[in-house]
Amino acid sequence: MKINFLILSTALFLFACQSESNKQEAKVKEKQTENTSETQIPTEQVSVELNAIASFLGGNQPKSPGEYSAAFANLEWKNHQSLLNPAWSKALVEKVVLMRDWSKTEKIEKKSQTLFYPFSGADFLHVYSAHSDYTSYYLFGLEPAGEIPKKENILNPALTSNVLSTIYKSVDENMSQSFFHTKYMAVEFNNPVLKGTIPVFMFFMNRMGVELTSIKPISFNDKGEIVDAKDFSKGVRIGFIDGGKNKELYYFSGDISDTGLKATSGLKNMINSISKDATTMMKSASYLCHLPVFSGVRDMILANSFTIMQDDTGIPFRFYDQNKWKIQHYGIYTQPIPLFASRGQVDLRAAVVGKEKPIKFRYGYNNPPNLMVATKK
């Protein structure tokens, strides 16, 4: 009888332990589901046509040219390839490799698969060099999304020189200087045969080795929900595959100042939604978050972001509550470039001295660069 009681007690104890273990495992799985539910994006297949166009712009021979074979036989395209290859090799050495090595070494903490990049323009080069381990990317700029380059323009020999010279001018500064010049973008991103940021995204995605799956127009409703659209006037969603994994990039064209947030229904709700637990990146941001008229987006970034990676053009150092943020400084901070001389930060300079870690790549306007990574405690 005692033996039976002992066996029964042991069985009940093991059952209770197993039950508790199952509960804990279920909680872990539930938490994992909560943290990754946003990353459940559509499974899409590689688009031969989109990648052929991207390869044409990027100066790369495509895996499959499809109906674009004649375009890659064009002597002007071959000259374009010869011009681009050394420039891209330099960008690889000075930017892509160094930023990816830095990212792997520093292991920036993240809470979600979302990367939020306000004031980005078409800067896929730097965001994907530093943060290629995310699934969803949300970029914002004033430049129009534009359109997918038309097949008839790519295949028209009379337009080849225009198309290729325009894309080269559009990407050259970003590759060599780490940022786009706004006054030049206004011209280059509005060429009649190569419009907006979409061709620039296609160029850099091709050169970064990812494969395109789809390019679709998007907008958002009053609730801030992203919805399909009939044209690219509000934005674009670009689906792509990297390492066999489906990912997505959203680019929205518009004013995210306080005035813009009030004037555009649903914009504030959308930004508030997509920035929850995101890693936020800011670079070469014209010190906009230093201005009172950008307090809305600044407050949302501080309230919602889990990690913020920025240079001194991002949110002023004084807005970071040291009791709420763990902060690591990189590079050297002295003063802004002359164009933004009035945006100096004495408190940032005092905080950086003696605590900074070196970085080997340029990040933003200043050279030598400065970089700060802040993570919620």
Give the tally of structural domains. 1
Mean pLDDT: 88
What is the helical fraction, as a range of percent?
40-55%
Gyration radius (Cα, Å) is: 24 Å
In short:
This protein has helices at 2-36, 48-58, 69-73, 75-106, 124-130, 151-154, 157-177, 182-188, 198-207, 258-263, 267-274, 295-304, 346-352; strands at residues 114-117, 136-141, 190-191, 194-195, 211-220, 226-228, 235-242, 245-253, 279-282, 307-310, 325-331, 370-376. It is an alpha/beta fold.
Describe the structure.
By secondary structure, the chain is of the alpha/beta class. It has one domain (42-376). Helix content is 43%, strand content 18%. It has helices at 2-36, 48-58, 69-73, 75-106, 124-130, 151-154, 157-177, 182-188, 198-207, 258-263, 267-274, 295-304, 346-352; strands at 114-117, 136-141, 190-191, 194-195, 211-220, 226-228, 235-242, 245-253, 279-282, 307-310, 325-331, 370-376. The strands form two sheets. Strands 6-5-7-8-2-1-9-10-12-11 form a ten-stranded mixed beta sheet, sandwiched between helices. It has a two-stranded antiparallel ribbon with strand order 3-4. A hairpin with a 5-residue loop joins strand 5 and strand 6 (226-228). Helix 2 packs across helix 9 (198-207), helix 4 (75-106) runs parallel beside helix 5 and helix 4 (75-106) packs parallel to helix 7 (157-177).
Which key phrases capture this entry?
10-stranded mixed beta sheet, alpha/beta, single chain, disordered N terminus, 377 residues, 13 helices
Topology, element by element:
Layout: H1 2-36, H2 48-58, H3 69-73, H4 75-106, E1 114-117, H5 124-130, E2 136-141, H6 151-154, H7 157-177, H8 182-188, E3 190-191, E4 194-195, H9 198-207, E5 211-220, E6 226-228, E7 235-242, E8 245-253, H10 258-263, H11 267-274, E9 279-282, H12 295-304, E10 307-310, E11 325-331, H13 346-352, E12 370-376
Parallel strand pairs: 1-2, 1-9, 2-8, 9-10
Antiparallel strand pairs: 3-4, 5-6, 5-7, 7-8, 10-12, 11-12
Helix pairs in contact: 2-9, 4-5, 4-7
